[in-house]
Amino acid sequence: MTVHKNYIDGKWCNSKGGKTFTSLNPSNKKVMGQFQASNSEDVEDAVKAAEKSFHEWSDKPAPERGLILLEVANLLRKNKEKLGKLVTKEMGKVLKEGLGDVQEAIDIFEYMAGEGRRLYGRTTTSELRNKACFSIRIPVGVFGIITPWNFPIAIPAWKISAALICGNTLVFKPSSDTPLCAVELVKILEKAGIPSGVVNLVTGSAREVGNVIVKHPRIRGISFTGSRDTGLYITREAGLKKVGLELGGKNPIIVMDDADINLAAEGILWSAFGTTGQRCTACSRVIVHKKIKDKLEKELVNRAKKMRLGDGLKKGIEVGPLINEAALDKTKRYVEIGKREGKLICGGNLGSKKGYFFEPTIFTDVKVNNTIAQDEIFGPVLSIISVDTLDEAIKAANSVKYGLSSSIYTNNINNSFKSMNKIESGITYINSSTIGAEVHLPFGGVKDTGHTREAGWSGIDEFSHEKVIYVDYSNKLQKAQGID
Ligand code: NAP
User: Fold this and answer.
1) Same structural domain, 151 and 109
2) Which residues share a beta bridge with 134?
3) What is the structure's pLDDT at 255?
4) 111 CA distance to ligand 1 centroid (A)?
5) Same domain? 227 vs 344
6) What is the pLDDT at residue 149?
7) Among the options 166, 280, 283, 346, which is catalytic?
8) Alpha-carbon distance 104 to 88, whole Å?
9) Which of 175, 177, 216 should be mutated for ligand 1, with most atoms under 8 A from CB?
10) Residue in 151, 223, 280, 281 to alter for ligand 1 test, most ligand atoms within 8 A of Cβ
């Protein structure tokens, strides 16, 4: 079995501790490979390498850094098929979504390459004569990048591309469920010409690696995507680092009585059961007007029952496995709770025992405050809540602690605009599902989802400081605020 290594200071190396761990294919529990179970010494080596290379990398003109990112995008495109299959094997999502994961990485590297010719500051006026005022972007320093497993290529790519274009160097700790995707991504960065020490990969556990990165005194920024609990931990432990957090969701789709029900049903199923419900933007609550509840419910159940569960590499499969045993147990637990809280109308059972499969599951007659309507399950479980008015629907949508994505199906313009303004979320879709973000727009949430924006025109804020410059060309001491 292949033993994969860490990548530190431009070299592929074993962990100082000599320990390894394995990653599994969730469709059949076969081992994907062995990886370094690194420790604090490895993190220290990675930080040293990132510090050593910082000056040269941040000094390189941003358009030149952009050219290297463009080469990363080119190589990702050349290897899209191979990497897409790897995503499906290691993470479980069906192949067309695995390819989408890689495409998102291509898109963001291209976008951030272009940012090398922008990285805009601002210019403004001065209170005083013969004085110029403007701002420039400066890098933060060494960044710790900590990522989850659900977009094993795209999420690291979002962070790494933005960190690099801003001139930072970094230590990357991927999820222990998808280390092979991380290794292959870093091989592409290496091949594209990222200089030694700029990107350092350290695989290993949350405790031995993630935690050390979070607390490391010479790491100046942390960019984290993952669960709310880990986000809270990082908030407490990272000290005065610049911290970016992209956390959980409990995303609603409102369906009004004037909506196109077929269109809504299609969007809900894609959003709830695509990626087996394991997207941060997945829909887990349908908030439907009472008048059309029965019709929508029937439509959803009929279609959900036909969805084919299985290995995502096989043709015709629409729903892959959950990521691991813990995720399967969590889903089972919530389904038992759901049986007490609502009415099970679809699924509710394990799929094939070969892998971590669970059927697309739908509960109806769920109340706004029920556990299954409040907690992030992160599996293929959908709750249907019925309401009488749009105001009631928006109140229900806003009743959770999260605020990432949301959607409304309606053909009424007033309903649309009211929802855009009143739903508490970072993203609202009109007549479309809750998933499908595009990389040239900012992505992120409100409330306990965190307040960071990644990608798009705000995507470089997380990875840079805005520094203000005053240039006084009056040849005398001028004082602001009218002081003589
Ligand atoms: P997680 O358990 O929080 O883990 C995420 C990453 O953090 C992994 O690399 C994990 O390492 C590491 N980690 C865990 N505890 C840590 C600690 N105390 N210190 C430092 N690192 C630590 O989340 P997950 O289960 O992988 O991902 C699912 C969650 O991510 C869901 O809540 C989902 O909504 C959220 N998510 C949010 C977005 C968004 O953009 N808002 C996007 C995708 C996913 P190990 O793997 O080694 O344990």
Assistant:
1) yes
2) 123, 469
3) 98
4) 25
5) no
6) 98
7) 280
8) 15
9) 175
10) 280
Give a yes or no: residue 57 inside a domain. yes
- pLDDT range class, residue 387, cuts 50, 70, 90: very high
pLDDT of residue 121: 97
Please indicate, yes or no, whether residues 243 and 268 belong to a single structural domain of this protein: no
Whether 177 and 31 share a structural domain: yes
Residue 437 belongs to a domain = no
Instruction: Report pLDDT digits (tens) over 143-183.
Output: 999 999 999 999 999 999 999 999 999 999 999 999 999 99
What's the rounded Cα separation, in Å, for the pair 195 and 191? 10
Number of domains forming the structure of the chain: 2
Question: 426 with 373, same domain?
Answer: yes
Q: Decide if 280 is catalytic.
A: yes
Whether 265 and 364 share a structural domain:
yes
Atom of ligand 1 nearest to the CA of 231: 3
Residue 336 backbone phi and psi in degrees, to 5: -65, -40
pLDDT value for 484 = 84
Q: Which positions ≥6 away from 21 have C-beta within 8 Å? A: 34, 35, 37, 176, 203, 204, 205
- Is 145 near ligand 1, meaning CB less than 6 Å away? no
Whether the per-residue pLDDT at 285 is higher than 90: the answer is: yes
Q: Is the pLDDT of residue 85 over 90?
A: yes
Going by pLDDT thresholds of 50, 70 and 90, the confidence category of residue 408 is very high
The answer to whether residue 463 scores a pLDDT higher than 90 is yes
In a domain, 199, yes or no: yes
Same domain, 80 and 217: yes
Domain span holding position 94: 6-247+450-469
Nearest Cα residue to atom 9 of ligand 1: 175
Beta carbon of 278 within 6 Å of any ligand 1 atom:
no
User: Of the listed 110, 246, 297, 299, which one is catalytic?
Assistant: 246
Q: Which numbered atom of ligand 1 lies nearest the CA of 449?
A: 41
How much is the mean pLDDT over the chain? 98
CATH code: domain of residue 379:
3.40.309.10
- We report the CATH number of the domain holding residue 11 as 3.40.605.10
Q: Do both 425 and 375 map to the same domain? A: yes
Contact 454, 444 (CB under 8 A): yes
Q: Annotated catalytic, 466?
A: no
For the Cβ of 21 lying below 6 angstroms from any atom of ligand 1, the answer is no
Q: Is the CB of 103 under 6 A from ligand 1?
A: no
Res 1: pLDDT = 86
Ligand 1 proximity of 449 Cβ (cutoff 6 Å)? yes
Q: Is residue 477 part of a domain?
A: no
Integer CA distances (angstroms), 21 to 32, 152, 178, 205, 226, in order: 11, 18, 12, 9, 21
- The pLDDT, as a whole number, for residue 413 is 97
